[in-house]
Amino acid sequence: MFTPPNRIPPGSEQESVWDYPRPPRLEESSQHIQVVFNSVVIADSHRTKRVLETSHPPVYYIPPEDVKLEYFQPVAGTTFCEWKGTASYFTITVGDRQLVKGAWYYPQPTEPFQSIAHYLALYPGKMDACYVDDERVQAQAGDFYGGWITQNIVGPFKGQPGTWGW
């Protein structure tokens, strides 16, 4: 496994993204996840799933029952993940604010990720705020990945300039 030159050793109660596997692992999470966009809580869940992949902060997938879907409109276009399959996107509109392709989901994910079918993931850097157990998260750098960084996740993280080849 490639390890970057400045790997941060995890402390007590911390996880290093360099201990996450490749291919990624999917796990259940009962952490309290909240997403706020244009001052409205658009997602609130204790039943999410985390995808953990080497060099990436966790990405949380939220069950559609815990998302205010009235704010989400399907949008044309897909992308492909070598691990999860073909992703589709939503535009999020709340009041006078709109975020094109602000959320994604896998309608028919690959076998190892079947349990996230139709669960939604959102880009934390494009929201007003995202929370894990009442801690406001930092967004993973760049606009390609949607990782959620909390105080118990250490890197360095893929996404910053110069990390594309990690």
Comma- or semicolon-separated keywords:
single chain; 166 residues; mainly beta; Metal Binding Protein, Guanine Nucleotide Exchange Factor, Chain A; four-stranded antiparallel β-sheet; 0% helix
Structural commentary:
- The protein is mostly beta strands.
- The protein has a single domain (15-148), classed as Metal Binding Protein, Guanine Nucleotide Exchange Factor, Chain A, CATH 2.170.150.
- The protein is 0% helix and 42% strand.
- A 4-stranded antiparallel sheet has the order 4-3-11-12, with no helix packed on it.
- Strand 7 (72-81) and strand 8 form a beta hairpin.
- The N and C termini lie close together (10 Å).
- The model has no long low-confidence stretch (mean pLDDT 94).
What is the fourth-level CATH superfamily?
A: Domain of unknown function (DUF427)
Main beta sheet = 4 strands, antiparallel
Averaged pLDDT, please? Answer: 94
The beta-strand count equals: 15
Structural class by helix and strand composition: mainly beta
CATH domain class:
Mainly Beta
Sheet-strand content, in percent, reads 35-45%
Low-confidence runs: none
CATH fold assignment: Metal Binding Protein, Guanine Nucleotide Exchange Factor, Chain A
In helices, the fraction of residues equals under 10%
SSE pattern: EEEEEEEEEEEEEEE
Span from first to last CA? 10 Å
Strand order of the largest sheet: 4-3-11-12
- Please give the count of helices: 0
CATH architecture tag? Beta Complex
**Structural shape:** globular
Q: If you compute it from the alpha carbons, what radius of gyration comes out, rounded to the nearest whole angstrom?
A: 15 Å
Q: What number of domains?
A: 1
